[in-house]
Specification:
The complex is a heterodimer of chains A (158) and B (615). Chain A contains 5 helices and 8 strands. With 158 residues, chain A is of the alpha+beta class. In chain A, the strands form 4 sheets. In chain A, strands 1-8 form a two-stranded antiparallel ribbon. In chain A, strands 2-3 form a two-stranded antiparallel ribbon. Chain A has a two-stranded antiparallel ribbon with strand order 4-5. Chain B has 615 residues and is an alpha+beta fold. In chain B, 39% of the residues lie in helices and 13% in strands. In chain B, a hairpin with a 3-residue loop joins strand 10 and strand 11. The chains are: A alpha+beta (158), B alpha+beta (615).
Chain lengths: 158, 615
């Protein structure tokens, strides 16, 4: 089964455990500045929204790369940056419509979410279930269940 | 490890910024944050210094677990000598600033001297420099954060700053970060303002990486997070209701100080409770509470985000207050509400926003208003003097006076001096509900005996956060004790004070102690910092910190006489509720407390105690 990261912003408290988990997984340090998932705090509404790469099927970054440094991990479906091939030209960062692939000045390469090889650290670290890793074909299952509950568990009119 | 190992020393008089290695010997003995920052302060500052003179210093300190994945690992402490009390001040804040500063590669920053003109400190990893802040002077905390993020073209910058209150000398001005998280008490913001220091803007990209045993650390913090999630208080009560879950509870116990502690139960408690915040308003059908919010790394998420009723008289013509903003916490709701007999939830939310926006401590402010209202009803103060009819229960007076106070206008100037100075000026010093000049928070020492002793002996003056015996006396954590009984409380207060000092110094939040003891903190500190940090060692560190703070205060001129409570709590019995007929039994408890602490009858640590703690 292919799985995807699924984000339910209503559950996010803004604790940034996901950002720390991401940087710890990839760099061995707790550094929110190095995280590939970012939480945005819209303080005028009180909303906190985690955001990261959705792993597009026809990925703009992958097609834009002139040295084919971005490839598909067949097991997870993740679009993965090969650091030894990447030349740091940043064309992918321009091509991505969502801003989720970014340049890292320290390494001279780009970085993006690679689903941690199939066990995303952010989802594991999230204390509220705002970030989950679920069946790619059934991201709507939770909402469907909510509506089914509303419809099916109503007292009947008669 | 897990300390960054480096500190910044900023001389504001000379305009210099230097990097120094952290004193690792002190780090082992005082851990970090509150303890370690206080060790630097007490070693470098004359206890008799005028708090608002250039000779006072002010320190922002993180702990070894600040900026890590340990739950609640986002705290920092501001340490200085307090202008409100003349005692040591250390005020703790959450939000994101502390972790950002640690991630820039620094454990603390020490400010000395006084800048000739307004400045702010800019820190971007290794780069640290003083910059002109003349364009920020006169601005609120909220405007300062927005202006800095815009001018630096970096929305990820975190800011710790003062508003107008800190500039104008309100004696209980707060240091505020991330819009509505505050190092709130004892006037740390006043000292910041006295040095012409407006803000510290930080961007940290290095991260915290030198965990001693990362595998053991990740395992330990995961286990401890599970305890928080499964605990009724930290896993359910606090995220759902925030600290405001206490309003109705403390009222029923008969320990909700009302109308300047004249009463111990408030008939309007339910109107200003967590339940009221979560109930749709009659006026617009919306709830005041929008959502809960976490500080950095926190898996509890007790913070409140609220929205006001746009038609309320306080904001009807002020759309800038219509958006979501930091909501009512229990202490603020009590101080702005019950302490003044005000039961208008919207007015309380307005006042709490102004406290955040311009940076004042809502506890000391609200409690001072309580004293003003009592003096007004006695006829000592008049409408002409105060600028408004200031009877108990007046939401109009509360809203008017919070504006006057933060802006340093009219009678607000006198309110900004705190209740001790104000009541003394008008001939009624007994009406200041404070210890060592700092106003009490939201628990009455007649209905809850231990907290009275904790107030009287707190090293920063009246405060619930130095030894939160409410946990035991009301909530039964870790064991239930009778709130009306004074026997056994001296030992209880000491245990809470010492454990809290250790938690405060780790970089984690004291709210974890609803579910954790030192035995839960120890494996986390040990995996991060060193095997020697056992439960017993942390307990000893906490006690060492407490005695160090005490010796600074003693050297500053405090004596056993200052371990006191107002006459009202000692002689005027509670009128209603379970504590009816009770006064606080401080005279019985205090000598036993000194004995438990290993202090002489004058409240001074004995040579044996000093030697045992390595002081």
């Amino acid at each position: 089964m292919q799985k995807v990261l699924h984000i339910n912003a209503d559950k996010c408290t803004g604790c940034l455990q996901c950002e720390m988990a991401c940087s710890f997984e990839n760099y061995g340090t707790y550094a929110t500045a190095k995280s590939r998932i970012k939480v945005f705090d819209f303080h005028h509404t009180g909303k906190k929204v985690p955001y990261t790469c959705t792993q597009c099927d026809e990925a703009w970054c992958l097609h834009a790369c002139p040295v084919e440094a971005i490839t598909v991990d067949k097991e997870t479906g993740a679009k993965v940056v090969n650091e030894t091939t990447c030349v740091g030209c940043k064309v992918c960062t321009i091509a991505c419509p969502f801003g989720t692939i970014n340049y890292v000045a320290d390494t001279g390469k780009v970085q993006k979410c690679d689903l941690c090889g199939g066990e995303p650290a952010c989802a594991e670290a999230c204390p509220t279930g705002a970030i989950t890793f679920i069946d790619a074909n059934w991201t709507g299952l939770g909402k469907m269940a909510q509506w089914a509950d509303k419809l099916g568990n109503q007292p009947s009119a008669a | 490890m897990s300390w960054a190992g480096k500190i910044l020393r900023v001389n504001l008089t000379a305009g210099t910024v230097k990097s120094e290695p952290l004193n690792m010997e002190w780090a082992q003995a005082y851990l970090g944050s509150r303890g370690l920052g206080s060790k630097y302060l007490t070693s470098e500052v004359d206890p008799k210094v005028d708090p608002l003179s250039p000779d006072n210093k002010i320190i922002w300190a993180t702990g070894p677990l600040t900026g890590t994945m340990a739950s609640t690992g986002g705290r920092y402490t501001v340490i200085t000598k307090s202008p409100l009390t003349g005692a040591i001040a250390c005020s703790n804040s959450g939000g994101y600033w502390g972790a950002e500063f640690k991630m820039a590669g620094w454990d603390m920053v020490i400010f000395e001297g006084k800048s000739p003109k307004p400045v702010y400190l800019y820190v971007n990893d290794d780069v640290a420099e003083l910059r002109d802040a003349s364009h920020l002077w006169g601005k609120s905390v909220w405007e300062t954060e927005e202006t800095l993020k815009k001018s630096l073209q970096d929305p990820l910058t975190r800011v710790s700053s003062i508003g107008k209150a800190g500039e104008s000398g309100v004696l209980y001005a707060a240091v505020v970060n991330d819009l509505h998280r505050a190092a709130g008490r004892s006037g740390v913001g006043t000292v910041m303002g006295s040095k012409n220091l407006k803000a510290i803007a930080v961007r940290g990209t290095k991260g915290v990486g030198n965990i001693r045993d990362p595998k053991a650390f990740m395992k330990a913090i995961a286990e401890k997070k599970k305890i928080l999630a499964e605990n009724g208080v930290t896993g359910q009560g606090l995220p759902a209701y925030g600290t405001q879950v206490l309003m109705n509870v403390i009222n029923e116990v008969g320990a909700l100080p009302t109308r300047n502690h004249q009463d111990v139960q408030f008939e309007g408690a339910k109107d200003i409770s967590a339940e009221a915040m979560a109930t749709p308003r009659k006026t617009d059908g919306k709830k005041q509470l929008v959502t809960n919010q976490a500080c950095f790394g926190c898996t509890i998420a007790c913070g409140r985000i609220s929205k006001m009723d746009q038609n309320h008289f306080t904001v009807a013509t002020k759309p800038q207050y219509w958006g979501a903003s930091g909501g009512l916490e229990y202490e603020a709701a009590w101080a702005l509400g019950a302490a003044n007999g005000v039961n208008d939830l919207e007015a309380l939310q307005y006042a709490t926003m102004i406290c955040n926006e311009e940076g004042i401590d809502p506890i000391s402010f609200g409690a001072t208003i309580g004293a003003v209202m009592e003096l007004y009803e006695m006829g000592v103060l008049t409408k002409e003097q105060v600028g408004i009819e200031a009877r108990f229960g007046s939401a109009q007076a509360l809203a008017f006076l919070v504006e006057e106070t933060v802006n340093g206008r009219g009678f607000g100037k006198e309110i900004g001096q705190g209740s001790k100075r104000l009541t003394a000026k008008y001939g009624h010093p007994d009406l200041s509900m404070s210890s060592k000049g700092q106003e009490f928070p939201a628990y009455d020492g007649r209905g809850i005996q231990g907290i009275g002793l904790a107030y009287a002996t707190s090293n920063r003056g009246g405060c619930h956060l130095r030894g939160y015996t409410i946990a035991s006396e009301v909530l039964g954590i870790p064991v239930k004790t009778d709130p009306l009984e004074h026997e056994g409380k001296p030992e209880l207060v000491k245990a809470f004070q010492d454990a809290t000092a250790a938690f405060d110094s780790s970089g984690l939040c004291v709210f974890t102690t609803f579910a954790w003891g030192l035995a839960d903190l120890a494996p986390q500190v040990s995996a991060a910092c060193g095997e020697q940090f056992t439960t017993e060692e942390l307990e000893k560190i906490g006690e060492r910190i407490w005695n160090m703070e005490r010796e600074f205060n003693n050297a500053a001129g405090f004596t056993a006489k200052d371990d006191s409570l107002p006459k009202r709590l000692l002689t005027e019995a509670a009128k209603t509720g379970p504590a009816k007929g009770k006064v606080n039994m401080l005279p019985q408890m205090l000598p036993k407390y000194y004995a438990a602490r290993g202090w002489d009858p004058e409240g001074r640590p004995t040579p044996e105690t000093r030697a045992r703690l390595g002081l």
